[in-house]
Every structure is written in structure tokens, then in C-alpha cells.
Amino acid sequence: MKVAALDGRLTISVDDRWVDVADASHGRFSPDPMGAYERWDELLAWSTSAEASSGPTAVGSPGVPVPRPRQMFAIGLNYREHAAESGFDIPEHPVVFGKFQSSLTGQGATVRLPSDGVDWEVELVVVIGHEAHQVAPEKAWDHVAGLTIGQDLSWRAVQTRGPAPQFSIGKSYPGFSPVGPWVVTSDELDDRDDLRISCSLDGEVLQDGRTSDLIFPVADLVSRLSSSLTLYPGDLIFTGTPSGVGIGRDPRRFLVPGTLVSSIEGLGELSISLV
């Protein structure tokens, strides 16, 4: 199943078309996309019903499919090749920081570059579907609603300025967390732990990797995060970026105005305009 927010309303994919959930369910479910994750099991069960199949086709533009997460986590240095290009050893524990909700944006958004030192980081993003606390790795996927595409745009000078690094601030300017275009349940994927992941600027490929290179894969991340805190339905986890970022190049390179397209196998493409 795919879950989207077409013109801000909760929609799901049924037989290769989009169905407005509130309309088709006659008000049983809210049009608010966040309501999907609070009632995830109910929505999954309803999605296969005759009521969902007979619902009218929805039209509209996809926005942020998870517009108001309680928590947004991000993981640094979580691909082996990216850790190497950054000059770090393979971490023994996940490098965790936060991103702020005000930085969220969606498919087709226009994002203003506040400096000439903003870097790209395409990421697989996990959407939590069931509350998780102290979850074992073998049970972690049971707490995941689905996966989506994200970019962790990063103003490197702000991220690294002292006396201590400012990761959350440097990665949370307006539009710095594009997510979408929809959430895909893992049963739609041939191998949820090995997906091709890439991004390009005006057609030039900047990153091209596979999620099988993750040091801490999805189940491990959910388990490790939940060992310290509680994950709630609708929370987002940016799982890290593969090699090929601008700061790791010689000479260093950063974003310029253009069209940035992020792609993950089975999840589609997320396109934003940089100005």
C-alpha cells in the first residue's frame, strides 16, 4: 500500500489509483494524513475492503505524507562508504541528532538556498506505525508503517561551527527536510533491506548507492532508538546518506539552483526546485 497526502488529504493506493480515505470511508477516518499512523492497523485492514475498492478516485498534488511528526531523528555516518569519505572510522553506535518539523516540505517544493555552502544527502526515511519502546531487532519491522524518500539538506558551515557542532540547526533551515512523495509499506518491496538509492541535480548523478551498505539497518535503528526513548506513530527516522556528498569531494562542491531529484528503488522519486 502507498499512503499520500493529495492536496493535504489522506489518500491510499487501491488498484493503481488513489482513493480519498475520508470520503470512501464515509467519515470513519479523518482526512488528516497524521490520523493514518495513529490507526495504522485499522487503515491496513480497511484498505482491502470493498468500501475502499469502490471509493471515488482522488486527484491532487502530493504534499508531505507525514506533515506533523512528533519526533524527527537523523543518523549520521551510517553508510560504510560515507563514513570512509568523511574520514571517520565505522561507528560502534548510531550517531543520532534531531531535525525540526519546520524544515519539512514535500514533492515539487521550491527551496531557497540560504548560502553557497549547502550540501545534499539523499536518505531512506522510516515512518513509525506503532509505539515502540525497548523493542528487539527481530520485532522492529512490526513497528514500522512504511518507508519514504528524504533529503537531509545541510548548511555545512552552520553544522560544524563551534564550540560544539550544531547538526540540528545546520540541517533544519526552511525546506531542508523534503520528504515524499508517499509512504510505501515494506510488503511492496522485493528486498526492504537492499534498495538502490540515488540523487541527481539537473540530471547529473551525485549519489548512487544501496541501502544494504547501511551500518545500522532499519530494524537495528528502531531497536536501538527505542532502547533509550519511545517512538510514536508518525515519527520519522532519516537513516543516513550514502557516499558522494559534496563536502567529501576534492575540491568540495555544494548545491546551486536547479532541480534536485532523489530516488529510491520501489519508493519513486522526490523532486524539489532549488533557488
From TrEMBL:
UniProt GO MF annotations: hydrolase activity
Chain ranges of the Fumarylacetoacetase-like C-terminal domain: 72-271
Keyword Cell membrane: no
Cross-referenced InterPro entries: FAH, Fumarylacetoacetase-like_C, Fumarylacetoacetase_C_sf
Entry annotated with the keyword Plastid: no
UniProt keyword list: Hydrolase, Metal-binding
Family: Belongs to the FAH family.
Protein name, per record: Fumarylacetoacetate hydrolase family protein
Organism: Longivirga aurantiaca
